[in-house]
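During the reporting period the student researcher (J.K.) took over the structure-prediction task from the postdoctoral fellow and processed the backlog of single-chain submissions. One of the processed entries is reproduced below for the supervisory committee.
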Amino acid sequence: MQATKPTVGIFGLTGCAGDQLVILNCEDELLSLVDVVDIRDFLMAASGGDEFSTLDIAFVEGAVMTRRDEEKLQRIRRRAKALVAIGTCALQGGVPAMADGLDWPSAVRDVYGPEGDGFDALPARALHECVEVDFSLPGCPIEKHEFLGAVADLLNGNPPQLPTYAVCTECKMRECDCLLVDQGRFCHGPLTRAGCRARCPSYAVPCVGCRGPVPDPNLGSAMDVYTSKGWSPEEVVQRLRTFGPLPTPVPAGEAA
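J.K. obtained the following C-alpha cells:
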C-alpha cells in the first residue's frame, strides 16, 4: 500500500510573488517534487485548490500589509503543522518596511489622497510578528536550490540548513575582487547572509543585502570600513535598511 504523501500549500501575501515564481521555475524538478508531496493549494500554479485541508507544510511569501493579509495568514497557520516564511518580505518586511517610523495614515493619504483613508493598508510586518513561524528561507527572491533543499530536509524531519556566514565568504570562494575594500563601492556583503553564491559581486555588481543580515553580524567592524571609505554613519544605516531592519550599527571606532 502506497504511503500518503505530505500535504503542502504555497501562498502569497502582499508582495511581488517572485518567490512563488522561483518555485514554478524549478521546471524539471517540479515533476520530482509532486512525486513526493501533495500540493493542495498553490493559486499561482492552479486555481481551484483545496482551501480547507490540513497541511503538513505551508510556504508563505510576502509581508503582512493589510488586515486581509493578517486574517489569511492566521488561517494558514491554523491549517499548517509547519509554516515556512519564504523571501525577505516574509522574514523582515522587505522594502516596504523602510516606511517604519512614518505617520502611516498621513503617508497613505499623501500617496492616494482622501480616498486612502478607506484603504485596508497597514505598515509592513514580517510573518513572525503575527504568527509563529517554524522555519525561514531568505532571499529577494529565494534561491531555487535552497527551496528544493528545504523541502528535502523537511521531508526527512530535519530543519532546513542555511549558511551562517556572509556573502564575502562566497566572494572569496569565487575569487572575486572586493568591490568595497579594493574599489570603494558600497557593498552589503560583509553583513548579508550567504547562499546566493555571490551572484551579484561575481558580475562586479555590489551586494545590496537582499538576503538579510548574517546571524550575529559584526556591525562595528563593518561600520569602521564603511566610514573609512567616506560614508557617514547615517548614510550607512539608511542603505542597510533597504530590505528590512538591521540592528543599529555602533559608531565607527567602537567595534568589538
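The committee noted the following: Confidence is low (pLDDT under 50) at residues 247-256.
J.K. will present the remaining backlog at the next meeting.
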